[in-house]
Amino acid sequence: MSGSGIRSAAYGLLPTDTTEDVRTRGAGVSTQVAVLPVGSFEQHGAYLPLATDTLVACAVAREIAAAYPVHLLPPVTISCSHEHAAWPGTVSISSVTLHAVVRDIAASLRRSGVEALVVVNGHGGNYVLGNVVQEASARGERMALFPAAEDWEAARVEAGVVTSLLTDMHAGEIETSILLHTDPECVRSGYETSDFVADDRRHLLTLGMSGYTDSGVIGRPSLGSAEKGKALLESLAASFGAYFSTLTGE
Question: Full-prediction pTM beyond 0.90?
Fold first, then answer.
């Protein structure tokens, strides 16, 4: 599926559409769909930035916006990172606050004629986003959460990512690969020697990340590459087609 045909380049994290761009794009579709990247501001070891999850969510959202006629929104950059509180730099808001922010954004979009919202989640700890979408759908609103675990698994296989999703929990092969592709200047040296595996994390919610890793890393970043990052994003964009069809009926 082709994109909007009218889309300004996005520099950094912020789309540069004008109101006329949005008006023109909306006139060409039966159902307007907005895409909201939700990231976090939390530790990602010594080699990836605190904003990693936001950069990943924005990269996925930009890939979607290049292929589908959607309204690309700026990201939510601070979310629920309480399990990372032991590391300097991590900042969180409550799940109640994040729930309210997304719900308010969706309501504002509907008032302006954008009927559907896709939340692109870049942080696994944002569990509440599933509840936001579930509750919205029960109210008859059009909302979806992307990517699902199945989408990540398909992308992992397509991109040749070796590490399983269980093992690749944080600052590992997937996140390092995506940033090596989209934001290589943000990846510092050290990822080549920072592999750490902790597959049994059944007490994560009680102990936090510090109960399982000293470095903050759980995964195999040494296996990351820009080529894998590119393939991951392409696969996710392809998977998004089913979400777009579900929300629009097209």
Answer: yes
Phi, psi torsion values for 160, nearest 5 degrees: 75, 25
Q: Which residues fall within 8 angstroms of residue 129, CB to CB, at 6 or more apart? A: 38, 98, 102, 119, 121, 145
- Omega cis (within 30) before 75: no
For 112-146, give the DSSP string. TT--EEEEEE--TT-THHHHHHHHHHHTT-EEEEE
The helix (H) or strand (E) run that includes residue 231 is: helix 226-248
What residues contact 19, with CB distance under 8 A and at least 6 apart?
Answer: none
Under a CB-based contact definition with an 8 Å cutoff, are residues 219 and 196 in contact?
A: yes
3-state secondary structure (DSSP) of residue 4: coil
Q: Look up residue 248 and give its two tokens.
A: 């629009």
> How confident is the model at residue 13, as a pLDDT?
80
Going by their DSSP bridges, the two strands 33-38 and 116-121 should be labelled as parallel
**Residue 183 contacts residue 50 (beta carbons within 8 Å):** no
**Phi/psi at 53 (nearest 5 deg)?**
-65, -35
pLDDT of residue 28: 84
197 to each of 29, 63, 209, 223, how far by Cα in Å? 46, 30, 12, 13
Between these two residues, 76 and 1, which has the higher pLDDT value? Answer: 76
Task: Output the CA torsion sign for 199, 203, 207, 211.
Answer: negative
> Lowest mean pLDDT: which of 12-16, 95-99, 139-143?
12-16
**245, pLDDT greater than 90:** yes
Phi and psi at residue 39, to the nearest 5°: -110, -140
